[in-house]
Amino acid sequence: MAAAALSGTPAADKASLDADAFRKLYPEDYFKSFLQDDLRPDGRVLGRARPTSIGINTITSADGSALVKQGDTMVCSCVEACKHGCMNMRDHDV
Fold this sequence. Notes:
Blueprint: H1 3-6, H2 10-16, H3 19-25, H4 27-35, E1 52-56, E2 64-70, E3 73-79
Antiparallel strand pairs: 1-2, 2-3
Helix pairs in contact: 3-4
């Protein structure tokens, strides 16, 4: 057992944990500590979004496409039009 676990008080246990362990064991307390300073854990102020970029026509074989990046998240979307007699689902029984 870790020495911190033997201290007996929850506050002492929390104080002796490293940041990653504290975040995993006490997520509510971890995030509240940042909210008190109007910050997010990554250092951004609460009202600031992550850096965002948008690229259009990123997939050349599609009729339309976009790549959107926000922070570490990326989303790619593409559209290809029907060129040879499209069928609409509402025109047929499913």
